[in-house]
Amino acid sequence: MAPLKRLVSCIVVSLPLAVLTQDSQCAMQLSHTVLNNKTNKSDAEDFVKKMVQQVLSYPAPAVNSEVSVSRPLLFMHQYRAGGTTLRQLLYNVSTNLGVKAHIACSGGVDCREFQIREASSAVYGGHFCWHESLKHLGEDKKPSCLTNFREPEARLMSCYTHRLVTTKKVAPWCMGKLAPEKLKSMLVNYGCVNEPFRRLGQCGLISKVGDKDRLTRMQVWNATLETLGQCVPILVDEHDTFKAAVNTFPQFKTAFWALKNLTLNQNKYAHDCQISDAHRQ
Ligand SMILES: *[C@@H]1O[C@H](CO)[C@@H](O)[C@H](O)[C@H]1NC(C)=O
Ligand SMILES: *[C@@H]1O[C@H](CO)[C@@H](O)[C@H](O)[C@H]1NC(C)=O
Ligand SMILES: *[C@@H]1O[C@H](CO)[C@@H](O)[C@H](O)[C@H]1NC(C)=O
Ligand SMILES: *[C@@H]1O[C@H](CO)[C@@H](O)[C@H](O)[C@H]1NC(C)=O
Ligand SMILES: *[C@@H]1O[C@H](CO)[C@@H](O)[C@H](O)[C@H]1NC(C)=O
After folding, report:
1. What is the Cα–Cα distance from 3 to 205, expressed in whole angstroms?
2. Fewest beta carbons within 10 Å, which of 12, 66, 174, 260?
3. C-beta separation of 102 from 74 below 8 A
4. For the packed helices 214-229 and 130-137, what is the interaxial angle rounded to 10 degrees?
5. Alpha-carbon gap, residue 273 to 280, rounded angstroms
6. How far apart are CA 81 and CA 264, in angstroms?
7. Contact 65, 227 (CB under 8 A)
């Protein structure tokens, strides 16, 4: 359960409302700015902590040593965290194993496939949403979940540079040129934060995790953490966490080993462009 524990501390610091740990690797302050501070933090921390503790006590996800149509592997791909390479690797291994794969951008599947629309494959991969995917696959399936995370600051920088600056051309190279409030709303509106909640909890670009309403927030955390509790996380920048994936999906071990050789998309964020303390609070 070690990867999950580390991961939970990562997501929690990278997300709204609660900074629960001082984990040095994950103590990422920028998220404070990024997130909605209208909500009552002490209130949120109170229930989030309890939920996290509960999820950490869940048993590890069951080993799936023979991935099949009835027990498919679902790779819930989170953006900007090495997942595109893993998708290709999973596709290649599936081909070698002779199992059918439905993976965005591979084997003729559209790169903008954001929903699973068939149920005859053994391996799925893409920017899907967990609960929606379960509905598409049908109740008779018992899917196993795999997802990818990356150290939150690196991921956020990569998302900012790639999506807001390069692709959408809506933001300056330097985050510091944006007022903190503006930066926050852009990162939220363009989906650079809240990714775990979107993939594993509810669907939709803007997560309701920052909602004022306590019940709504609890439901979002509950749905996300419950999914996470049954999902095998890969922390792409921590190679020892790959062991959990190898153990759970032994047929795909060569994909995970090869992923270790991955050099993450170089962060293009300009190093001379410091993020001010005001932006980190
Ligand atoms: C966020 O919190 C700071 C400090 O508590 C406060 O000055 C600011 O007005 C808050 N912003 C919003 C949008 O509530
Ligand atoms: C925040 O929650 C605490 C504890 O539940 C409560 O005492 C406090 O009044 C709340 N503050 C606001 C602004 O709602
Ligand atoms: C989520 O909600 C369900 C139903 O109320 C509950 O049984 C479960 O313990 C909750 N999970 C967490 C992590 O709080
Ligand atoms: C997957 O296989 C194809 C075809 O053999 C190859 O070109 C590609 O580099 C492989 N992808 C990865 C990530 O190894
Ligand atoms: C990883 O890279 C090293 C050095 O290039 C190579 O020898 C090794 O075969 C690679 N491993 C995998 C699993 O691709």
Report:
1. 26
2. 260
3. no
4. 60
5. 14
6. 8
7. no
Best residue among 37, 41, 42, 279 to mutate for probing ligand 1's pocket (most ligand atoms within 8 Å of CB) is 37
Q: Is pLDDT above 80 for 41?
A: no
The band of 42, judged by pLDDT with boundaries at 50, 70 and 90, is low
The angle, 0 to 180 degrees and rounded to 10, between the axes of the packed helices 214-229 and 2-14 is: 150
Dist. CA 20–CA 238, nearest whole Å? 21
Residue identified by tokens 């922390």 is 235
Q: pLDDT, tens digit, for every residue of 145-190?
A: 999 887 666 777 778 888 888 888 888 887 777 877 787 778 777 7
Domain boundaries, the chain: 30-150+212-259
DSSP for 52-72, written as a single string: HHHHHTSPPPPP-SS--SSS-
- CA 245/CA 63 separation, integer angstroms: 9
CB-ligand 2 contact for 66 (6 Å cutoff): no
In testing the pocket of ligand 4, which one of 88, 94, 257 has its CB within 8 Å of the most ligand atoms? 88
